[in-house]
Fold:
Amino acid sequence: MSAAVNPGYDAPSAAAGRAAYQFRQGVSMKIMRIAAVAALLAAVPFGAAAQQKPIRLMVGLSAGGSLDTMTRLFADKLRVSLGQPVLVENRAGASGLIAIEALKAAPADGSVLLTAASGQITLLPNTFKTPRFDPTKDFVAVAQMAEVDFVLTVNPGVPAKTPAEFAAVAAKDSRYRTFGTAPGTNPHLLATMFSRAAGIDAVHVPYKGNGQAKLDLIGGQIAAAFLTAGEAVELDRGGKARALATTGAKRSIMMPNVPTLKESRFDVEASAWFAFFAPVGTPQEVIDRLSRAIVEAAASADLRERLAHAGIGAAGLPAKELAARIRSEYAQIGKELRTSGFKLRE
Structure:
């Protein structure tokens, strides 16, 4: 007599098999999805994620000055060309050291950049006995955006209409020796160079940037300042200050009636440039992308016109050429300061 077959005997085993099969299939699908995502991420260049978030442009000087103005004009262009929000953030203080230190600590993905004047990059570190940073190693040059000449400008109360007259009154009266400068910047160096050429002992009154220095120049709290051509021409035309001489190799197109310092028999000649910088380690493809956008912006007719109204010449220079300029200028300024007797800071 055969045993009766239990119709439910194999049911649990079959159900368990089906469940195990489904579990394996689910795990397999998940693994495939994870692998697909990993492959996709691996194909995306480092820094591409940063292209989707806002770019923070730190300005190494206070609001209201030339660097701040041109940074905001370039930011408008970059928002369009890069297709990203671009936020401008003033990080003034310590002549730009605060902003430079912030850049060194920032993510190296192109999401944080610094705009700075040449004086902060090639002059400032040379003014210390022990440099606080090395511009050839501690950050990456992205692109130059502009160049500008300076103007020896005095407040209306200074009884001088030429550099020679100013040197004469400053030699006799210490009230006329005060120069408003941001320590370690081009105006600081120019004030030192002019005072040496004029045979006077300049008194440097420190500011975070040209914005406040302009206000105190107008108000008579300081006698003189080296302002950009755009800043100086505006004050001169309005009778709020007097432009005595420009610092370029030739006269400014904005102030053709104002002589250069060399024409006025003072051996002083200098200009400033302004540029973008990124943290060390930023991928080269990110640097190249940003550099192209900045150089293209500098070449645009509308931006060049707007900068010209401010006395600034748009001058785009890509990363490699800018880096070479920094290396050369950094060494040259260091040599000049050492031979000039410039008092280095601790």
